[in-house]
Design brief:
Helix content is 34%, strand content 20%. It is of the alpha/beta class.
Length: 259
């Protein structure tokens, strides 16, 4: 039996190490593989997994967190809110989908003030975090910074949708969330980039907290800028760890039922 992480491109995903260690520690006879799938082969590969009795589950990463939705059954309410899926489990030929990322995000920002939240990037993770946070933090106001257009079904009243950074919005921001790949190792061009410069950060609210969902590398350019200016900062390692723990627990429980 085997599990995987599906995405494109895959650059040494942390999930492979975490899942393999878990399976070994729990004495579960399950292998774990990275599976890089090109877009033109995605539908064919996913449909094939449904009929593979040896396939147990998979993490889903960029750029397929929204595309996978049409292939899975979603029963979890938080995952329905998220409108994106990052984990699937094969239950007798039916792929059940979950968004465990958002549970990790909730845990990561638990101690931070959230009266005003700015989210940079509106891809699979950014949109999921906004959709869930707007449901559970109903008194908060939100600013989304993205080149994408606002989805027609997003009707949250206390929301601004901006194409570019407007620094005055940061003067009263409690929590800034980087949901873009800037600073990550997904591409070499991302590594030396940050969603905010030191000059922009110096104009932000002094006790603003920063949550960067990037976890590889641990210390991004944004991290270094934030630490230099004494901002509260957390990277994506906790989010990644929590979401993996939730997914692995689901796999363990289901695997035991099969035996």
């Amino acid at each position: 039996m085997y599990c995987s992480i599906i995405g494109h491109p895959l650059t040494k995903p942390r999930s492979v190490i975490l899942w393999r260690k878990f399976f070994k520690d729990k004495n579960l006879n399950i292998k774990m593989y990275p599976t890089d799938i090109k877009d033109n082969l995605f539908d064919k590969k996913i449909d094939k997994l449904k009929h593979d009795s040896n396939f147990v589950a998979s993490a889903i990463t960029m750029p397929y967190k929204k595309k996978i939705k049409s292939k899975v059954l979603i029963l979890d309410q938080i995952s329905k809110y998220a409108n994106a899926i990052n984990f699937i489990i094969n239950k007798k030929g039916v792929l059940h989908g979950f968004n465990t990322d958002v549970y990790g995000a909730i845990e990561s920002v638990k101690k931070f003030k959230k009266k005003k939240i700015i989210i940079f990037g509106f891809g699979g993770a950014g949109e999921a975090i906004f959709r869930v946070f707007s449901k559970i933090y109903k008194q908060s106001s939100f600013v989304i910074i993205s080149k994408k257009n606002k989805p027609k079904d997003v009707k949250f009243k206390k929301l601004k949708f901006l194409k570019n950074i407007v620094i005055k919005e940061f003067s009263d921001c409690d929590l800034f969330i980087n949901c873009s790949p800037l600073g990550s190792n997904l591409k070499k061009s991302y590594l030396n980039k940050s969603p905010l410069s030191t000059k922009q950060l110096s104009l932000c609210k002094k006790n603003m907290s920063i949550f960067d969902i990037v976890y590889n590398p641990k210390k991004t350019l944004l991290c270094r800028y934030a630490k230099k200016l004494n901002f509260n900062f957390i990277n994506g390692i906790k989010m990644n760890t929590v979401q993996a723990e939730i997914a692995l627990k689901k796999i363990e429980n289901y695997y035991k039922k099969l035996k």
